[in-house]
Amino acid sequence: MLDLFDSSRNKILEAAAYAEFKAGLAASGCQRCALANSRTQIVVDRGNPDAKVVMIGEAPGENEDLQGKAFVGRAGRLLDELLKELGFDTNRDSLIVNVVKCRPPDNRAPDPREAEQCAPFLKRQLELVKPRIILLLGATALRHLVPGKKGFSMREEAGKFFSHPEYPGVEFMVLYHPAYILRDMRKKPVMVEHPKRFREKWLG
Ligand code: URA
Predict the structure, then answer these.
(1) CATH number for the domain that contains residue 145
(2) Which of 71, 79, 95 is the best mutation target for the ligand 1 pocket, counting ligand atoms within 8 Å of the beta carbon and taking the most?
(3) Relative to the CA of 57, which ligand 1 atom is closest?
(4) Is 120 in the pocket of ligand 1 (CB under 6 A)?
(5) Residue 1 falls within a domain, yes or no?
(6) Sign of CA dihedral 114, 112, 78, 134
(7) In a domain, 197, yes or no
(8) DSSP 87
(9) Which residues, including other chains, have CB under 8 Å from residue 65's CB and lie 6 or more apart?
(10) Is residue 61 domain-resident?
(11) What whole-number distance in Å separates Cα of residue 44 and Cα of residue 41?
């Protein structure tokens, strides 16, 4: 996904090591989409790039934008807490990233153009980290990682494993986004149940 007319982005995408990629993107001052106007900083990730699990969320929110780390607000704390009960430490056992790396105004979902501009960065993250399992947190992540999937319902997709032709050998799973659970705590039991299914794959 190199662009002949964007040498600064190409340099980031050509980084051979994750640390180099991360430092390059964080310092890039990227202006490829309008989210550059609303962000405080570019939020590349949180966690361990050597882990075998990558979790993909939607976009940084207010706390993430201020701290420069993914999923450090209320939704992130809930995610950490739910997974900790399974012996899974999000900072040690996963790398957490987002579909877009900059905070959208008023925390709206990223629009397709913004996601498209950011997609090469997400793709490169996945190439460098080479996860065995990818957890898609919520509908935005599913929509952007599997563009052919139209008109799906999260009730049908959440908790399921699937494979993706672009990522051979990687197991994908869809989970409810933790912010969705925060809005309706009655959904918490499924958010607890689904990661239990994933735990077996993670340990296996
Ligand atoms: N929600 C997301 O999707 N990502 C974050 O980093 C924080 C909240």
Answers:
(1) 3.40.470.10
(2) 71
(3) 3
(4) no
(5) no
(6) negative
(7) yes
(8) T
(9) 39, 40, 41, 43, 102, 103
(10) yes
(11) 9
Q: Name the pTM for this structure.
A: 0.95
Report how far residue 108's alpha carbon sits from residue 89's, in angstroms, rounded to the nearest whole number: 28
If 0-12 CB within 10 Å is exposed, 13-18 middle and 19+ buried, where does residue 87 land?
exposed
Ligand 1 neighbourhood includes 110 CB (under 6 angstroms): no
What residue numbers bound the domain in which 34 lies?
Answer: 7-203
Q: Which two tokens stand for residue 27?
A: 């310092």
Reading the block at residue 161, the tokens are 């494993």
- Which tens digits make up the pLDDT trace of 74-109? 999 999 999 999 999 999 999 999 999 999 999 999
Q: Give a three-class secondary structure readout of 157-199.
A: HCCCEECCCCCCCCEEEEECCHHHHHHCHHHHHHHHHHHHHHH
- Cα-based torsion angle of the residue sequence 168, 147, 181, 26 in order, rounded to the nearest 10 degrees: 80
Would the CB of 70 count as within 6 Å of ligand 1?
A: yes
Q: What confidence tens digit (pLDDT) does each residue in 112-159 have?
A: 999 999 999 999 999 999 999 999 999 999 999 999 888 999 999 999
**In a mutational test of the pocket of ligand 1, which residue from 35, 58, 69 has the highest number of ligand atoms less than 8 Å from its CB?**
58
Rounded distance from Cα 167 to ligand 1 centre (Å): 23
In a domain, 164, yes or no: yes
Largest CA distance in the chain: 50
In the reported structure, the alpha carbon of residue 55 is separated from the centroid of ligand 1 by a whole-number distance in angstroms of 10
